[in-house]
Amino acid sequence: MCQNNKYKNLKWDIWNSIWRNDDYLQIKQGPIPFPVIDRRVSLRYYKKPDLMDFSLSEEHLMIRQAARDFAQNELLPGVIERDEAQKFPSAQIKKLGELGFMGMMVGPKYNGSGMDTLSYVIAMEELSKIDASASVVVSVNNSLVCWGLEAFGNEEQKNKYLTQLATGAVIGAFCLSEPEAGSDATSQKTTALDKGDHYVINGTKNWITNGNSASVYLVMAQTHKEKGHKGINALIVEKGMAGFEIGPKENKLGIRGSDTHSLIFNDVKVPKENRIGEDGFGFKFAMKTLAGGRIGIAAQALGIAAGAYELALKYSRERKAFGTEIKNHQAIAFKLADMHTQIEAARHLVYKAAWEKDQGLNYDLSGAMAKLYASQVAMDTTVEAVQIHGGNGYVKDYHVERLMRDAKITQIYEGTSEIQKIVISRSILND
Ligand code: CAA
Prior knowledge:
The protein is α+β, with helices and mostly antiparallel strands and 431 residues long.
């Protein structure tokens, strides 16, 4: 981190122009004496160093408490049974909507809570400690559907759909993945043929979160095959449109309370006014929206890790072996030390990515790093939490085996860990 006064004296508006206009090159060549610094990430540490502050505001602390209380009182009861029966948490999602958790970042004009991204990740962390099946519903609705519509939809679309989605009155789904287009998202096979005043969609989408519980679906489909990803459109599809079928529910390893389905489109007629953005904007829409979605999933991973750690810590204080509580054995204490350290590091990455988004900075890199790291921490921490619980960890009553199963998906959806490494490496190598 730079302590050089020369950089501290640079005016804030210059830094603002670097970050808001993404015009780093101009600054490099400008009149201010400035050493050549190759990586944009290095610059972050020069920005307002005196403002580094790790404390949360009163409002953020209240949101944390509200989400924590909700998770304890409303999500914990029945979480094991819902997981086992693959039961969607309908009643809980309805209440989350009433409390404003389904459209946290949406402006009040569209019935949202008007909060920042940091509030959203704090809530995601707390909900995910207890029930990742419920938190993924919250995440997809907030960051993929509501955020995407508010950022790129037109006024009519926002009034018609966002106002409903933001209150949780209806739930949304984000439909990009296909049987042959998962990580390779540009290879969309689903087509949306342009028929003048409407599109006709044909194809199949796979692994769609909220597949059956949703009423509003943001569907990416290819209109101009010859243009590759520049020919893809994002269309708003409503449940019940003729030719739109919900496929069978997936029987999953984890997040079993959430409903994941394939979707089948047979000549589904969608009016042109349901297209988001200009013709061919669909792939950019998906990428920009997913960049923020990844911060939400990183927060989910953080919450799963923290939930497993808290259970392991409690258990280590209660369970006795060899005449003492197991926390007094260094083998257990060291595991807890590693878990605590990794969770804190993950939290810093997640909160920083959220902060960057709130500042209007580019968060592609920080979001990808947060998701990559937090999902690995979720995996490692939950495995260790099961180990600390021993035989009890392997049975359902102690919750940690569920958290371990839930953790795995955070390394897969909204971009696998390998995709995050593509995003990160391209970002640092191209800077
Ligand atoms: N913001 C804006 N534009 C972006 C972008 C971003 N973050 N990332 C890429 N783009 C643009 C590029 O600039 C490029 O546009 P131009 O040609 O105009 O320059 C275009 O998108 C194509 O980009 P690439 O050439 O980099 O494309 P690629 O084929 O090499 O792949 C990828 C890029 C990052 C690997 C991308 O395909 C990707 O993210 N794949 C993973 C998809 C994914 O995350 N799927 C998750 C499914 S959704 C889900 O899981 C939801 C759920 O239900 C929980």
